[in-house]
Amino acid sequence: MTPERYKRLTDWLEGHPALREGIILLNRWLPLVPFVCYPVLLMLLNLRWFRMLSIGRGSGALDFMQVIARAILVPGLAFWLGTILRARLNFPRPYEQPGFVPLVSKETHGNSCPSRHALSAAVLGMVWLYFYPSVGVVMLTIAALICLLRVLSGAHFVRDVLAGAAFGLTFGFVGMWLL
């Protein structure tokens, strides 16, 4: 997004202060939803595993433990590889352009692509989708909203969030369904 185009957007948002404040608030707090819900998912999976053990389904419990391990390793590896990729690419952030004033000021420079917020929310949404499809759809909707908010806040280019979401969705699909 060019500084001029973003300025038109922020000027429009100045005329809609409730929407502007809502974007700022959601940008700050919505990324916590996948982060907080992920341990809940792991707890639910472990409760299911303990139930399997207690009713004597030992071989099924062992298989399920491997699936739980994937639910831990897939997001961890995606985050780690995404972090390495963005450090290697070291793309600038939108607000590093002259004349670009972000809605939410940040001090970070470079490391813009892929967006880790988008990547993390997308891969966690895919893990939820594997075990609890209805919750997974909600989590993927939240991931899409996080992508939108990262662009509206001025923290990322569209390219950054699309790359992060694509990386997270692909890694989640391959790791949970194809392995």
TrEMBL record:
Residues 73-177 form the Phosphatidic acid phosphatase type 2/haloperoxidase domain. The keyword Transmembrane helix applies. Gene3D superfamilies: Phosphatidic acid phosphatase type 2/haloperoxidase. The chain crosses the membrane at residues 29-47, 67-85, 129-149, 161-178. It holds the Pfam family PAP2. The keyword Aminoacyl-tRNA synthetase does not apply. Keywords: Membrane, Transmembrane, Transmembrane helix. This is Phosphatase PAP2 family protein. It comes from Faecalibacterium longum.
